[in-house]
Amino acid sequence: MKHSTVALLFSFVLTSAFAQTNTDDVTGVRQACFNYIDTFYKADTTLAYQSVHPTLQKRGFAFEQKTGSYSKQLEMPFPALIRLAKVWNKEGKRANSDSPRQVDVFEVADKTAMAKVTAVWGIDYLHLIKENDHWMIVNVLWQSPPKSLQVIK
């Protein structure tokens, strides 16, 4: 009886610790994603330095109104992201408090995570890594707002 009580208590402690860590990780991933959006919305590069890894690989496709088609694949390393963030919404004309600002976290493991961001510029799929107990975005695949989106469950 004594052994089963100890085993049950130990199991409860482990489960509680795992649940707390998992909740903290989801919160950390979500915060990194919101920092990514706000880097551009607020023209605040300090948020990028907090949540985007310096080895960032960002690739995507912009819809060009003039041609009615998407651009070729565009690439943006971390230094280019910083340069763009400084000027993209500097005057507050591209994004405001009514602009889309949505984060959907798909999966969080102990060292990796995946999320989707919906913002005024379109959708971004993010891969994150956990370094020194801190979540950082390392890969971004994006496109302008899609004409259609198939959600497969």
Number of domains: 1
**What is the distance, rounded to the nearest whole angstrom, between the alpha carbons of the first and last residues?**
46 Å
CATH topology: Nuclear Transport Factor 2, Chain: A
The overall strand count is 8
Shape: globular
Mean pLDDT metric: 90
Category by helix and strand content:
alpha+beta
Keywords: Signal
InterPro entries: FrzH/put_lumazine-bd, NTF2-like_dom_sf
Organism: Spirosoma aureum
Pfam families: Lumazine_bd_2
Report on the structure:
- The structure is a single chain.
- With 153 residues, this protein is α+β, with helices and mostly antiparallel strands.
- The protein has a single domain, classed as Nuclear Transport Factor 2, Chain: A (Roll).
- It has three helices and eight strands, in the order ααββββαββββ.
- The protein has helices spanning 2-41, 45-51, 78-88, and strands spanning 52-61, 63-64, 69-70, 74-77, 101-108, 112-119, 122-131, 134-143.
- The strands form two sheets. The protein has a six-stranded mixed β-sheet with strand order 4-1-8-7-6-5.
- Helix 1 (2-41) runs antiparallel to helix 2 (45-51).
- The protein is globular.
- 20% of the residues are buried.
- Keywords: Signal.
- InterPro entries: FrzH/put_lumazine-bd, NTF2-like_dom_sf.
Short structural summary:
This protein has one domain: Nuclear Transport Factor 2, Chain: A (Roll). The protein is 38% helix and 35% strand.
